[in-house]
Model the fold of this input.
Amino acid sequence: MYKINEDYLKLPGSYLFSTIGKKTAAYKEKHPDKDLVRMGIGDVTQPLAPAIIEALHKAVDEMGSPETFHGYAPDLGYEFLRNAIVKNDYQARGCDIAADEIFVSDGAKCDCGNIQEIFSKDNKIAVCDPVYPVYVDTNVMAGRTGTYDAVKETWSDVIYMPCTAENNFSPELPEKTPDIIYLCYPNNPTGGAITKDALQVWVDYANKVGAVIIYDAAYEAYISEENVPHSIYECEGARGCAIEIRSFSKNAGFTGVRLGFTVIPKDLEVNGTKLHALWARRHGTKYNGAPYIIQKAGEAVYSAEGKEQLKKQVAYYMNNAAYVREGLKDAGYEVYGGVNAPYIWMKTTNNMTSWEFFDYLLENANVIGTPGSGFGPSGEGYFRLTAFGTYENAVEALKRIRAL
Amino acid sequence: MYKINEDYLKLPGSYLFSTIGKKTAAYKEKHPDKDLVRMGIGDVTQPLAPAIIEALHKAVDEMGSPETFHGYAPDLGYEFLRNAIVKNDYQARGCDIAADEIFVSDGAKCDCGNIQEIFSKDNKIAVCDPVYPVYVDTNVMAGRTGTYDAVKETWSDVIYMPCTAENNFSPELPEKTPDIIYLCYPNNPTGGAITKDALQVWVDYANKVGAVIIYDAAYEAYISEENVPHSIYECEGARGCAIEIRSFSKNAGFTGVRLGFTVIPKDLEVNGTKLHALWARRHGTKYNGAPYIIQKAGEAVYSAEGKEQLKKQVAYYMNNAAYVREGLKDAGYEVYGGVNAPYIWMKTTNNMTSWEFFDYLLENANVIGTPGSGFGPSGEGYFRLTAFGTYENAVEALKRIRAL
Done:
């Protein structure tokens, strides 16, 4: 008789956003007349920029003609896209990354989830707390996290690095030595950023202890401050210890278009095995490339028109973030983030738990956010609002919260 | 110090088609004047059908407007596509499959590769020999296949089911009892098909011994004979033992568009755990859906115009297959397949090994095919040609082979 992967059964409950969806649907059914403002899930709302739409149409036409039709894509992605990425995201920032170190994929979530597969099951992971749930959950499914403590909501074999207002949401170096360190900057969910000097400390630490850093830079486009690095490869020595994962979802509105990439420098090796070769083997064996037309859309992100249009799109969301951040501060709330990231991270009031605050906002302001505790135990007492809605919705949400 | 997944290192050599690519490139460099006819990799060459191009353009326009923009897709895929699949691929054939048992993905290769993840590492797999390499390789990477015998080219913990001319490429039920059985019909690489009665034997066997069948039906559109099932769910009891994987790559030319789906009936359970729930959890945690515009292209495959146009496209490739099959027979070759599948499976001549025959055809006819031994030891002495090229190329290849 066949058996299932028992590690899957260890996962507690369902995915955070499913729970929010169910609670929201239940409220909506009871109060069909109420108009909800959704600031929960980090999904974009602005349409694709004209330069991207134009590139998509052109690529679709190519697929309709035998001379310009494209079948299977190259394993690592098309050269035109990998070259554009290297030139704009790395060389322009002085980072020494080559086109054949870029692996194009259908998004950062898949890459964040799959990357653990090339590592031994015995490796110990370290994550920020709170954290994007995919890092931990995919390690649970791989059997790498030990046993779950339902009271503490932690795994016995995971090293948690608390990020709270007390340490300005910057984790200390862990006491126990990890093998794999997940870092996400600008941060989801806290909206915090890291300076180049602070990131250099992590790179030096990883190189010293022989750890690999999985650096999730999905929100890089939202950086507004000067001393904040856009890539971990801005730090010295990062080629020897870091994998970087990037997304087109937030800088170009590709949540429903699906495109991302992972950078694995060829310097990254352990006992003579290059991680680049392992990830290439995974790509070749379990993946068949991102669609040609989507990769052409990705190329348009780096065109002069594309860059201009997307700068405005990012500015639009960051204007929402500033409006919500300042408005909440004015109203007396304790608020973080929203400067280098499209997330506002606020303290709940009256000692409410995160889920109590979720219900309170849903019922009294008809505003939906994400409970901080859904991202880990140190998120308890916090609440996340995203800036990815419309400006009108941000204004409406603030009006309602002010009236509480 | 972090460690890698040692199971990855067990994989012998590189992926079959990389080797063919390298050999071809080397020959081309030495003989730049030679015009090669490529019948190796199973990539399509006809452009997307007009109905699909139209649907893509329309969906692209939707993404450019705030009212019709689409962000994150539903985890399992859009209803419009899942409904079209169920209606056309299942209900129309009398198969009892519901829309919420369909998981839309970016292709059958990913699904074939990832599906093993929901099963225990202790499960024993059975595969046909020869076989599509992805089934075995992904189980190697998961540590499920034991040790490799480089002489026999087999894994100690894999049950091989030889498919040769002697058994008409229909494997016997295995002597050792497997937990997971991979079946692919119409078959890649042998081009063979299975009758409904013969498939029923497998379903009954799986139900009897408590095995699960992973049924890869990627070539279903090429079935031309009456008694050949298009889905395993045409067999009685299949809902209790079978997962079916489908692709849009070969019926609609989507190799560079990327769309597929997996069917997991809710009846499939072991010790009270539904496989449906496990795969849903994987989709929710490690995947973010196929692009909206690609799912709209998939919907167009099932439109009246789409069906009409794609019937012609499939007929075009099958005309190539018939031409090559009959031409080779006339020329005295021993040939199989090409009736219900776009693959021709031929015996090598003069006791040449598969790779010797590859070199012989490359050098003397400038025709590229795939060595049968690349698909497993029982493929030795065979050679695969695909019908996915143009008719002109099929004619040219035959002319050259006849002249040998």
About this structure: The radius of gyration of chain A is 21 Å.
